[in-house]
């Protein structure tokens, strides 16, 4: 009788952990799928401030947004097939690490040209991966 009750308790614990992990996964993936639109929504209102901060033209600040959009489009073409071949976990983890490091580098961009280069080359790929893999 004791063996049966222990088995039932273990089974109940496993079911509880599965429910918790599914809920965590749903919340995590839902949050990450909102990264792309959320970051764009934060970036658009800051364009006038970027113009003043970098002492540049409105056209160059708009180019920074355009390059980020082009990078996201190209990234979807590249990272979609990669995630199909390699799996989803590895590209997602690598993308989150690159995204974090690039975001920190963007904070210290000394001029608009460095900002555009980072936004064109490094930032969109991880952001795209987060959206594509989810």
Structure description:
It is a single chain. The longest helix is centred in the N-terminal third of the chain and has 32 residues, at 2-33. This protein has 134 residues and is mainly α. The termini are far apart. The protein has helices spanning 2-33, 35-43, 47-54, 58-86, 89-107, 112-121, 124-133. The chain is built from seven helices and no strands. 87% of the residues lie in helices and 0% in strands. α4 (58-86) runs parallel beside α6, α4 crosses α7 and α5 runs antiparallel to α7 (124-133).
SSE arrangement:
Elements: H1 2-33, H2 35-43, H3 47-54, H4 58-86, H5 89-107, H6 112-121, H7 124-133
Helix pairs in contact: 3-4, 4-6, 4-7, 5-7
Protein traits:
mainly alpha
> Rounded to an integer, what's the Rg over CA atoms?
21 Å
Mean pLDDT across the residues is 79
Helix/strand/pairing category: mainly alpha
Gap between N and C termini, in Å? 45 Å
Number of strands: 0
Relative helix content: over 70%
Tell me the number of helical segments per DSSP (H or I, 4 or more residues long).
7
Low-confidence stretches: none
Largest beta-sheet characterization:
none
Please provide the ordered H/E string of secondary-structure elements.
Answer: HHHHHHH
| Shape annotation | elongated
SS strand fraction = under 5%
